[in-house]
Design goal:
alpha/beta; rod-shaped
Length: 691
């Protein structure tokens, strides 16, 4: 017997409804009701070729159960059956709303008269077939009724689908309307949020001039210009960047095509003409196929932060200036107390030679301490006069190590771990040794006089690093931040001026190097000095001459000094050595004297002078006008260290000692000269003074 019909497959929707499946195959069901198994089998055989689903019932009651479970295209109902005959069964089928219109074909072998046929039609039959059934006639009748059923079901299914489409369209339109309303609300909320935030969202091209594609409306509150101005004029945003920041910004943003992201800060001229600090950050987003890449980013107004940082920096600067001023005043007051006190006593009462010599010695020692303090301050401010030569750092440390060991004491071991090979650096040897000594003594104090100090060097193609590692108590973060400040010290009062590390910092920075500290509490401290590697050949430092006596001469020299007291002292000293001295207080006056007096053999000038021409410029002009003129400069404060390093003339540091000045003058005057030796003036013979 044929199987049951294929059930339609329905596609589910999120709301639980499903459209009618127009692709599902419709099959008709035929119910054969006959108590005679042979008749039922014959009918089934006749209808099998139609391809419909055939269901057989043996009685009227069984037929009623079938119509409860299935929808039939046609029912073949035998009239003469025991129990419930065909008429009763048809009446029961017709009484149900669902099956009231199902076609019923009566099949009978007994009731052939017109009365029974009429009764059959009255009972709801659409046709009557007499047994024995002709298979062709039965197939024709069932085929017609089944086709009518299938067409009716197809029409119903199409109507359902059409109705579903209408309902689905209405649902989609309603959902679309809700989505549009939600989108408008979201856009309004987003716009309100973006306007309230001090953030400008933007999208722009990744190549200069980085033409904006979109700029948030918040830009007007920051710059005073509407966002449309930036989009309509591609070069407008870039044109108002501060000239000093423009190249850096262009380079940074252009690099986004390689790095994928950027961040920069710059000054931007707003509508009121004032510059504001803007922070711009963005990322690279791939463009459409064969299209230009784009940058998506945000801009923040950081003017207030920069203002606060500047105020904080100014406050710190003033605090540092106050600390330096207080430290200088404290130390110099102590020195001046010694000087003025002894001078006052010497002026008010006569004393024997021994006491007078002791007071003079006390004054000298105070003055020398003042000189050293001044040099330390100049070193920190990078205004000291350096005399650099190219030396091997490894050799310098090896030769200086014995003095370091002596300075730190026997309880501190000094270990050297020096890199192999040449380590040339262009530095002032004396200042480098002072820096190492300061760091070693500082390490000794940090270790309470007991521990280990390791000095290590590392080299690269461009730099030399000198590291000094101690085993002391280490430093906290706040101490590390202030360790190079002048007069800052963690030592007890009276144990150090607080200028040692600041002198190291100033010397290294003036030598184009860097110094940094790595330290944590309980882990010791390491100072790293990084110096540029020199390409010049290594030089051996010239040994300092041992000046035992001052030797003078009778040559004529010009002294240029704007300070009257210094000028008087210098003239007295030089004339005491037998020199013929003329003076000037400014550069233009000195040039006039040189032009008027051809007997002047040497120019001795201060570097820093009023009048617009420095001592270096004076020396250069004087040498051009008088090629054989000897020149010696003196400096107590370096305004332009590069200028001094580039000059060919020797320089004495103020305050200079008389023996040093006397020796330098003789060294210069006795150098071979192509100019004829001037005649000595009568009564101006040189003097030799034992010191």
């Amino acid at each position: 017997m044929p199987g049951t019909a294929t059930q339609p497959v329905r596609r589910s929707r999120p709301d639980g409804l499903a459209p009618p499946d127009l692709d599902a195959v419709l099959r008709a069901k035929v119910l054969i009701v006959d108590d005679d198994e042979r008749n039922a089998f014959a009918a089934a055989e006749a209808l099998e070729d139609l391809g419909h689903e055939l269901i057989i019932a043996r009685s009227g009651a069984e037929a009623l159960r079938c119509v409860l479970d299935h929808d039939f295209a046609v029912i073949l109902l035998d009239l003469h059956m025991p129990g419930m005959d065909g008429y009763e069964t048809a009446a029961m089928i017709r009484s149900r709303k669902k099956t009231g219109r199902t076609p019923i074909v009566f099949v009978t072998a007994i009731f052939r008269d017109e009365a029974h046929v009429f009764q059959a039609y009255s009972a709801g039959a659409v046709d009557v077939v007499f047994k024995p059934v002709d298979p062709f006639i039965l197939r024709s009748k069932v085929s017609v009724l089944a086709d009518i059923y299938l067409k009716t079901e197809e029409a119903k299914r199409l109507a359902e689908h059409r109705q579903w489409l209408l309902e689905e369209n209405a649902r989609i339109q309603a959902a679309k309307a809700r989505a549009e309303r939600a989108l408008r609300r979201s856009e309004a909320q987003q716009d309100a949020i973006l306007k309230s935030l001090p953030i400008v969202f933007h999208a722009r091209g990744a190549a200069p001039p980085f033409a904006p594609i979109f700029v948030g409306a918040a830009v007007e509150a920051i710059t005073g210009f509407p966002s449309e101005r930036f989009v309509s004029e591609p070069g407008f945003g870039v044109s108002r960047i501060h000239p000093d920041d423009l190249k850096r910004v262009i380079d940074t943003v252009s690099a986004t095509t390689r790095t994928g992201a950027y961040a920069c800060e710059f000054r931007w001229r707003c509508a009121d003409g004032e510059y504001r600090w803007l922070s711009d950050q963005g990322v690279l987003a791939p463009g459409e196929e064969d299209g230009e890449s784009q940058i998506f980013g945000v801009i923040l107004d950081t003017t207030d932060r920069h203002s606060i940082e500047e105020q904080l920096a100014q406050a710190r600067k003033m605090e540092a200036v106050g600390q330096i001023t207080g430290g200088v005043a404290h130390d110099f007051n102590n020195l001046l107390t010694v000087v003025l006190g002894n001078v006052d006593i010497m002026a008010r009462r006569p004393e024997d030679t021994l006491k007078r010599a002791l007071r003079i010695d006390a004054i000298r020692q105070a003055a020398e301490r003042g000189r050293d303090l001044t040099r330390q301050l100049l070193a920190f401010s990078r205004r000291q006069n350096l005399t650099p030569v190219t030396v091997d750092i490894g050799d310098l440390i090896r030769n200086f190590a014995p003095l370091l060991r002596q300075a730190v004491g026997e309880a501190v071991s000094v270990e050297l771990d020096l890199a192999s090979g040449p380590q040339p650096a262009h530095i002032d040897v004396t200042q480098m040794e002072n820096a190492l000594l300061n760091l070693a003594v500082n390490a000794r104090d940090a270790m309470a006089g007991v521990g280990a100090l390791t000095i290590r060097t590392e080299t690269s193609a461009d730099a030399i690093c000198i590291s000094l590692q101690d085993t002391g108590a280490g430093m906290t973060a706040d101490v590390r931040e202030r360790i190079f400040e002048p007069f800052f010290t963690t030592k007890e009062v009276g144990r150090g001026s607080g200028l040692g590390l600041s002198q190291v910092y100033g010397f290294v920075r003036q030598s184009d190097g860097e110094v940094r500290i790595v330290s944590e509490p309980g882990a010791g401290a390491r100072f790293d000095i990084t110096l540029p590697r020199s390409q010049a050949p290594v030089q051996k430092p010239a040994p300092q001459a041992d000046v035992g006596e001052m030797v003078g001469g009778a040559e004529r020299m010009l002294v240029v000094e704007d300070d009257p007291a210094v000028l008087t002292l210098t003239v007295d000293l030089l004339r005491g050595l037998g020199y013929d001295v003329v003076t000037a207080t400014q550069a233009d006056q000195a040039l006039e004297r040189l032009a008027e007096d051809p007997d002047i053999r040497l120019l001795f000038s201060d570097v820093v002078m009023p009048g617009g021409m420095s001592g270096v410029a004076l020396a250069n002009q004087a040498r051009r006008d008088h090629p054989e003129l000897k020149v010696l400069l003196a400096s107590g404060f370096v305004v332009d260290s590069d200028l001094l390093l580039s000059t060919e003339f020797p320089i004495l540091d103020k305050p200079y000692q008389a023996p040093v000045l006397a020796a330098k003058l003789r060294e210069l005057l006795e150098e071979p000269s192509s100019a004829p030796e001037p005649a000595r003036r009568p009564g101006k013979g040189g003097r030799r003074i034992r010191t």
